[in-house]
Every structure is written in C-alpha cells, then in structure tokens.
Amino acid sequence: MPPPASPPPAGGTPRRPADETPDLAEIRLQKLRQIEALGLDPWGQRFDNTRPIGDIRQLPAENFDDAKPGPKVRAAGRVVRYRTGGKLLFLEIWDQTGRVQLMIRVNKVTPQEWQVAQLLDLGDLIGVDGEFGKTKTGELTIQVETLTFLTKSLEPHPKDVFGMGDIEFRLRHRYLDMIYTPDTLRRAHQRVKIIRTIRTHLDAQGYMEVETPTLHAIAGGAAARPFETHHNALDIDLFVRIALELPLKRLLVGGLEKVYELGRVFRNEGISPRHNPEFTMLELYQAYGDYRSMMDLTEGLIVACVDALGSGRTIPFGEKTVNFEPPFQRAKYADLFLEHVGCDMADEVAVRAAARAENIELEMAPTKGAPKVAKAHVVLVQELFEDLVEEKLVGPVFVHDYPAPLCPLTKRKRETPAIAERFELYVHGMELANAYTELNDPITQEQTFTQQLAGMSEEDSMAKMDHDFIRALRHGMPPAGGLGIGIDRLVMLLTNTQTIRDVILFPLLRSEAK
C-alpha cells in the first residue's frame, strides 16, 4: 500500500458547511447545471486504468520544452488547487498516494473540455490523460490532453489545513479530515497494515479465522455493561456482545484447535482517550497450550506488526519511546505489588493500611437500603495495583500470575491455587493484551461462576449463568491458552497516537448540536 499523501497546500480558512453563505452553494449548483448543459454527467462515469499519483511521480520526467516526449499517463483525483492564467490553467489533483500539478492549455484540449476546466471548483473530482514531465521551474506536471469530469462537489472544501485543528469538526467530518490531515490518512493505512499482518502471522501458524454471533442471549466472557436489544420475531431480549470468548471456546470443544476472531465488541460504558464503546478485539485460543504459549505468541505477533510498519523496533510514543526488541520483560504480579506498593499482597492488614494511605474507600456503597460492607481483600489489592503499579510499567512487560479471584475463567496454579495462570501485557501503563491458561474444568467453572454471581445486580453483565457454556465444557474442552488484544490500543501505540478516537475512523460522538 502506498504511503499517505501530504495535505493540499495552504490557501484560506476552512469553514463548516453550516457557516457557508447560500451564495457559494448556489454558485456551485449553477456550475453543476452548466456542466449538465454541456451534455455531461456531473456525477461521472467509469474511468478505468488510472495510475496512483504516487507512482506517476516516480516516472522519468523530461522538460516539456525538450524534444523528447514524456510518458503518457492517466490519473484521477480531487482538485485541491486552482490557478488561472488566461489561456493556461494550473491545477493540482490529489489522491491517497500524493498530489501532482496539471497544466491545461486552451489549444491542447477540446473546446468543451476547456469550458469544463473553467467550471471546476476545489473538491471536484476529475480524470486526465496526458504527458508527464517538468515545467521550466522543475515542477512535476501532467500536461493534459483529455479532461474527464467525474464528480461535482456541492459543498466548499477547506482551502488549508489550519481549521482542521478543530477536533470536533474533524471527527464529524472524517472524510475531510482524511483529505486535509495527513496523519489521519497515515494512521488509516497503518491500521490496515497492522491488521493484515496479524492475519498473515496467525494464518502462517495454523490458526483458523472464524466469525461468531454478535447477538447473545447472555452477555458473557467479560465483566462489562452490555447494550441491549430485542428480537421481534422470536420476542426475546438479546445483548450485543461484550467479548468473543465463549463462542470461540465452544469451537475448541468442536475440534478447531487453533482459532481466532478479529471482531467488533460493544460495551455500554464511558468514553475516554483509551475507551470507546465500540472497539475491535483479537481473541484466539490454542488447544494444548497455556499462558506461556500465549506470551511467546503475543511477543512474536507484536514484533511482526512493528516490523511491518518499517520504522525500526524502537519507536516514539508521545514524549517517550518503546523498545520492542525481544525478549519482552516478564514480571510477577506479586513482585511488582511488593516493589511499588511496599507490602505483600497477601497481608490483609498491610493492604488495608496501604489503601487507607491512598484514600481508597475501604467500604462498598450500600444498595437498596443495605448497610455498607467491607471491600474484599482482592478488590483492594487490584485497586492499589491500578493506582500505584500500572503507571510505572514502562514495558513492554508481561505481568503474570494474578490473584485467582480476579480471574474466573482462568486455570489456577496446581501448587498455588490462590494464583491464576494469567498475564497482561503493559506498555507505558497501558494494557495491550490479556491471556490465560483457560479453565476447562466444568465443575470448577460452575462453582466459580456461582461465587462470582452471588450478590450481583440484574444489571451486571454476568448476572446470569451461561449453562450452555458449562454444558459445552462438560463434553470436554482441551487444555488451552487464550489471548485477547485490543486492536485500537495496539494501533495507538504503534502509530504514536494519544487518543483512541484518532485510530477509529468513526468513533462514537454526542448528537450534533442543532
């Protein structure tokens, strides 16, 4: 895929469509009618065999005044500069690979094409055939021999990039943002490359990509608030999935021994620089593996994505850098807790004292008139870890061996049942991946679900037992390792982007003010 193009050159100040005067829109509409009056379709027809502008610019270019003609080319793009000079017009057109100057002479095109050239506006789409070369000033240029009108833009386009600094405007007009903000287009290209690399890497290792349902009768696989909907024909309430996990594990039971899905997941929760209610997850499961297998796979997968972007293995992230040269650091949860909190995570008295020192509430808020109750020890441990440890994890670092109560779907260590075989991958305090040695014991899984559901409100995502999943486990799921990676956060990190909204083409926004 060619690299994203630079933005069009500066001109004036962009204005939002609502701010444009009716006269400007009317002028463009009048030009549309004039193009129709010439017998042309202002919305264009098929225009095959064009070359990307970026490729055209790599061709050998002779001066137009030389006797040797340049190569014949065909290009299509959006008009981003327009300059008239009597019987000579200079335009620039842009596509996702670059921009190039056009030179239109009155004696080189037909009278109708010359008329069309006079009717062009910034933002219009045209196609051209002509000779590629250089002007006297050395500007790479297509000398137009045939001009084809492809689409009329009825709304004025920004004339420069400065107004695109309004984030709200950019997000609501992502189509303009991609044209006039080069970083947005660059990230879009890089995201595609990252996802393609993930698929290629997993396919090469024998994983099979599948699709599982988006609508679930029970919201499971994570602790999150789901979006709810209703199926009219069956008259049943359904949930939009909050995770990919449980259907994929059913496929392990069915004999798909290496399986993955790249899918959209929906959680009815808050919005922040690292959270969007709709996001993309990679989940995969490998029969006869464990969380150590997943560490090796995760490391290789992320390094492959870094290498695919071609900027080396030490890359910037804000004012920091990240070195992805393997092997990644591996550290136990308990060791990090002791180092940064200053006490053993098993010491309940010391943990409560540390929580009190950090102004962490020790009691749960009452519900429905019930008295407050003390937070469970493991809840305080996790809150302290989030507050005092995560921000210090430079990484990439695999944090492994979590307290078992935090991991209801995870196999415990045989020698230490209080510890679950789980890891999370952190880079500069941001969680990128989560992996388990999967719990495949249906008896323990049902007990764990029962304990977890005790006292939960009906609104909680996992407030209902997924009996069908337990039944699937009872038919025998092989021991397995499982992995989840948040694709949007991975793209943020690898493209040096500080907010998730800039790596999702259409993030969720509030309703537009009228």
UniProtKB/TrEMBL annotation:
Its cofactor is Mg(2+). Residues 1-21 are annotated as: Disordered. The keyword Isomerase does not apply. It is found in: Cytoplasm. It holds the Pfam family tRNA-synt_2. Homodimer. InterPro entries: Aa-tRNA-synt_II, aa-tRNA-synth_II, aa-tRNA-synth_II/BPL/LPL, Lys-tRNA-ligase_II, Lys-tRNA-ligase_II_N, Lys-tRNA-synth_II_C, NA-bd_OB-fold, NA-bd_OB_tRNA. Its EC number is 6.1.1.6. Mg(2+) 2 binds at E431. It is an enzyme of class 6 (ligase). Belongs to the class-II aminoacyl-tRNA synthetase family. Transmembrane segments: none annotated. It comes from Gemmata palustris. Residues 193-507 form the Aminoacyl-transfer RNA synthetases class-II family profile domain. Residues 1-11 have a biased composition (Pro residues). Mg(2+) 1 binds at E424, E431. One of its GO terms (molecular function) is lysine-tRNA ligase activity. The keyword Glycoprotein does not apply. PANTHER family: LYSINE--TRNA LIGASE, CHLOROPLASTIC_MITOCHONDRIAL (PTHR42918:SF15), LYSYL-TRNA SYNTHETASE (PTHR42918). It catalyses: tRNA(Lys) + L-lysine + ATP = L-lysyl-tRNA(Lys) + AMP + diphosphate. Binds 3 Mg(2+) ions per subunit. Keywords: Aminoacyl-tRNA synthetase, ATP-binding, Cytoplasm, Ligase, Magnesium, Metal-binding, Nucleotide-binding, Protein biosynthesis. This is Lysine--tRNA ligase.
